[in-house]
Amino acid sequence: MASRFRPRLALLLVAALFALTGCAGAGALGAGGRTLVIAIVSNPQMEDAVALSKQFEQENPGIRLKFVQLPENQARAKITASTATEGGEFDVVMISNYETPQWAANGWLENLQPHIDRSPGYDEADFIPSIRDSLSHQGSMYAVPFYGESSFLAYRKDLFERAGLTMPERPTWQQIAEFAAKLDDEQAGVAGICLRGKPGWGESLAPFSTVANTFGARWFDENWNAQLTSPEFRAAAEFYVNLVREHGEVGASSAGFSECGTRYAQGQAAMWYDATVMAGTNEDPSSSTIVGKSGYVAAPVDRTASSGWLYTWSLAMPKVTEDKEAAWSFMRWMTDKRFVHTVGNSFGWNRVPPGVRMSTYDIPEYREAAKAYAQPTLDGINQAQQQNTMTRPVPYPGIQFVGIPEFQDLGTRVSQQLSAAVAGQITVDEALRQSQEYAETVGRSYQEGR
């Protein structure tokens, strides 16, 4: 499906390459040998990898590493532009299970399977199957996972106990809204809940789409008719916007994963619904004031059995990378079993990359450190399938995203409308009417192409 959009997408992205600065070109020769340029998202787990990268350089004296660290939205735009147009700025790129199958079908990525197969001890079979499959195309892996996640709800056990509230193991969104109203304490500076409102298809659209799914909504019906003004989609949008406006964090329209993470870890929210990877930061004494005070339960539901998403940040190699062996050496180092132990021993076991390797969950130190959230994370990943999280069939892959090339633009546009509604600049109905027009344009291109 994705391949027929390659020419159009590439042309649209050419201009974005002019925004790429500070990159002299991938694979450049440095004073000590070859330099690999790596584009990476500046999330906490990735920053740990950067901090440990000197170990890789010491073990591989002919290779130097140069990291281009960017916030999520910027990283997506620059990595997409460079890879789509074969710009060659980066030797290794951090992408997700949204991009990987599409870019593999377009021929933009190196097939990693031959590299994996001739790497003794790398143990591809150790990857959690759903994570491995989400990064594969026609039976071969085109990206290797750094960490994997679903979504779940963190809540302050101490605040719940003080208020006489009990969190169910599988809460509904209606229950969460009631809890948020009771725990919202403006005087104490504690929001009832933190939810992303920041624009971006990978920001606010991620949690919101899971709410839409469990409310019975879908982006397109089976004939690619846009459904963003359907009663189900409207109900989900009104619920999400009202909840975050009435009981969410201050400045919610500009709050993403990082902002909510900081607020929750500093004791400024009673609940936080987001990626399961959040737990490592919540339980890290170096970054959190609430260590040991959180409980973790399944993603809240409305009409469905579950509602968590499936996502993995992973490393891929653009097809045009010159020194593929050096690039694979780095990718292997950052995603193998040994790296998990390196992070655990260096920074603490709460900070190891979760949700990728089954063997991680057999490490005694990790099991002890992650006892509050390890099983909920695995349960969320295992249950993250469309048949569990949606009420009706859809013509696209993905749970918290629509797995088509246009979603980078469509999702961002829709998220901007919803963010404006969160900020009180427009009504939910106005946001959805404009969003429906965007989605109809995309839907027609698929109807015409059948």
UniProtKB/TrEMBL annotation:
Domain of life assignment: Bacteria
Tagged with keyword Zinc: no
Short name of one Pfam family: SBP_bac_1
CDD domains recorded: PBP2_TMBP_like
Xref: InterPro entries: Bact_solute-bd_prot1 (IPR050490), SBP (IPR006059)
Keyword Signal: yes
This protein's UniProt keywords: Signal
Secretion signal, residue range per the UniProt entry: 1-26
Protein name: Sugar ABC transporter substrate-binding protein
Source organism of this protein record: Saccharopolyspora taberi
